[in-house]
């Protein structure tokens, strides 16, 4: 089964977000004021339950609809006796119509003199204490580096002891790229209205948005169909179950073509990682000169040596025997960990990939060889999963990939153009699929940035593919399996986990 993300996990660009808003307003007749009311009231409800005992909030407001959301929050909370101090960074003379209407309502609701309004940043005396600061300065309407008093407001808010709660997106964070536009709010919590934004997950996004609370808006599902990015998390991706089979070869076979002198550790980690998932058989194909290393370290794993005892890396003359081995049993292939970069090995990889008809995970040095040859066209009906880290990915193209936004766009285009699946490692991890849909992770993948974790991941992805899971699902399973192990590790141990902790 291919991945099927729930719509609560769709991730929008600013343009897509505006488009869904616009269509809902124009085609469904649900006006912007109503949408704002739903957005602000859901945030207010969450604040009331998360922060009991609050008595005073500070609201930093711009002049657009993001400010309108903040004003709705202020009205609901004032009804619960939480006083509101409002600061308008662009004054109140030029508010968006819905924000203006909400300011009027807020004034009318203020029966107990709980409202204080400053009409500019300069007028705000900055004294007082607040239980929280609502960031309603800028949302998806941000279109340039921060201007005027917005810069001052953001820098000041980031220094306050009170937690900052952002409406939709932290002010200053670009909704598409996740870049900080001159300065950026560091929020403790962000309420994502009607959809998560791409910028929440890219570049500075994860460090700036804090906890993301998704607030649903009445957008019809069919308006979301243009969305092709989803958040990948364990709330919806099934944990790949162990698959006890009728006999060993019926419960999944993974051929691992990996290792060379000095790099046998990569092949060993990948094999152990795949084996731990409960496969029927893991078969390591190796140059004969390295057989004794694997005999010693991998007792449960079947070894199939090729070539002669002086061979310590793969060569073109190993090709026909390797293909013959692969014909013995149904199964999938993991090609690459620790293969090395000898000329002969690169040539073996190119020839292998043009003739191999098995579904294949292509990792590490095999990716290097593939990028060098540029032979991206795979044999028909064969599925490829490529697992590049950022350096490997950048060899796929002549254009530099310097940020996450470019990486996401490149992964999407490249995987759909070539009908392959790409698991782009990094922070965030991104899965690109042949349909153009991408999935992005939201956890700290930097814990995995140690040599060997890529081999463990490739072993898991290979194992799930061998169980018959779809390529995108295999990648998701591999990533989240590591994430679950990381969570358990961090609960009980300190320091950096090692690759064996993820096996
Ligand atoms: N109907 C809707 O459109 C809905 C919108 N919602 C909210 O509305 C937000 C989008 O509202 P808007 O499109 O009004 O945009 P914003 O409220 O984000 O801000 C737009 C205003 O900011 C100014 N601006 C842009 N970049 C600036 C910069 N660098 N420095 C200073 N000023 C800058 C623009 O000139 C414009 O006046 C969303 O993020 C969300 O919070 C929600 O209320 C849900 C419904
Ligand atoms: N479970 C996981 N979830 C997210 N990312 C992961 C996971 N496992 C590995 N990674 C990614 O893989 C990278 C390690 O792979 P790589 O750089 O190829 O190293 P190596 O091949 O030396 O082991 C990590 O930095 C991380 O981005
Ligand atoms: K904001």
Provide structural commentary:
By secondary structure, the chain is α/β, with parallel strands linked by helices. The chain folds into 2 domains: 7-226, Rossmann fold, CATH 3.40.50; 248-502, 3-Layer(aba) Sandwich (UDP-N-acetylmuramoyl-L-alanine:D-glutamate ligase). Helices cover 37% and strands 16% of the residues. The chain has helices at residues 14-28, 32-50, 65-79, 97-109, 149-159, 205-209, 264-275, 291-297, 319-327, 343-355, 364-373, 390-394, 404-417, 453-466, 471-492; strands at 11-12, 56-61, 83-88, 115-118, 132-136, 164-167, 189-193, 196-197, 211-215, 229-232, 253-257, 281-287, 302-306, 332-335, 360-362, 384-386, 421-424, 430-432, 438-441. The protein has a 10-stranded mixed β-sheet, sandwiched between helices. The relative contact order is 0.10. Bound molecules: ligand NAX, adenosine-5'-diphosphate and potassium ion. Adenosine-5'-diphosphate binds next to helix 14 and helix 15. Ligand NAX binds next to helix 2 and helix 3. GO terms for molecular function: ADP-dependent NAD(P)H-hydrate dehydratase activity; ATP binding; metal ion binding; NAD(P)HX epimerase activity. Belongs to the NnrD/CARKD family. In the N-terminal section; belongs to the NnrE/AIBP family. K(+) binds at residues 66, 135, 171. Homotetramer. It comes from Fodinibius roseus.
């Amino acid at each position: 089964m291919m991945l099927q993300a729930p719509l609560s996990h769709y991730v929008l660009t600013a343009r897509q977000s505006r488009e869904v808003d616009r269509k809902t307003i124009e085609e469904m007749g649900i006006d912007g004021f109503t949408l704002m009311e739903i957005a602000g009231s859901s945030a207010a409800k969450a604040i009331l339950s998360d922060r009991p005992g609050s008595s005073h909030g500070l609201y930093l407001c711009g002049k657009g609809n993001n400010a309108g959301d903040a004003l709705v929050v202020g009205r609901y909370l004032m009804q619960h006796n939480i006083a509101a101090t409002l600061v308008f960074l662009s004054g109140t003379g030029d508010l968006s119509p819905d924000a203006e209407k909400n300011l009027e309502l807020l004034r009318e609701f203020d029966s107990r003199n709980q409202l204080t309004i400053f009409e500019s940043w300069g007028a705000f005396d900055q004294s007082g204490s607040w239980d929280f600061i609502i960031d309603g300065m800028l949302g998806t309407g941000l279109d340039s580096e921060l201007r005027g008093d917005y810069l001052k407001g953001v820098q000041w808010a980031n220094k306050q002891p009170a937690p900052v709660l952002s409406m939709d997106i932290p002010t200053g964070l670009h909704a598409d790229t996740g870049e900080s536009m001159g300065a950026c709010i560091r929020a403790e919590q962000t309420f994502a209205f009607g959809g998560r934004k791409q910028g929440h997950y890219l570049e500075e996004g994860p460090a700036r948005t804090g906890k993301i609370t998704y607030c649903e808006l009445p957008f019809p599902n069919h308006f979301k169909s243009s969305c092709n990015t989803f958040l990948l998390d364990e709330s919806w991706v099934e944990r790949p179950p162990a698959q006890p089979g009728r006999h060993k070869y019926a419960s999944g076979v993974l051929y691992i073509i990996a290792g060379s002198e000095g790099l046998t550790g990569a092949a060993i980690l990948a094999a152990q990682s795949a084996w731990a998932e409960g496969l029927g058989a893991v078969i390591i194909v190796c140059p004969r000169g390295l057989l004794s290393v694997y005999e010693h370290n991998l007792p449960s794993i079947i070894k199939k040596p090729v070539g002669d005892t002086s061979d310590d890396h793969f060569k073109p003359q190993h090709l026909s025997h390797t293909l013959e081995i692969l014909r013995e049993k149904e199964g999938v292939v993991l090609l690459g960990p620790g293969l090395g970069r000898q000329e002969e090995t690169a040539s073996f990889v190119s020839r292998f990939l043009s003739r191999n008809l098995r579904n294949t995970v292509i990792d590490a040095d095999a990716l290097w060889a593939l990028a060098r040859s540029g032979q991206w066209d795979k044999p028909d009906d064969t599925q490829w999963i490529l697992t590049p880290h950022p350096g490997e990915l950048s060899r796929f193209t002549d254009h530099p990939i310097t940020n996450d936004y470019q990486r996401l766009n490149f992964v999407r285009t490249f995987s759909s153009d070539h009908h392959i699946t790409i698991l782009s490692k990094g922070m965030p991890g991104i899965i690109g699929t042949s349909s153009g849909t991408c999935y992005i992770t939201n956890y700290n993948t930097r814990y995995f940035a140690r040599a060997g974790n890529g081999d463990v991941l490739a072993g898991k992805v290979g194992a799930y593919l061998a169980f018959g899971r779809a390529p995108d699902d295999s990648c998701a399973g591999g990533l989240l399996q590591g994430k679950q192990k990381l969570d358990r590790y961090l609960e009980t141990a300190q320091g950096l986990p090692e690759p064996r902790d993820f096996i």
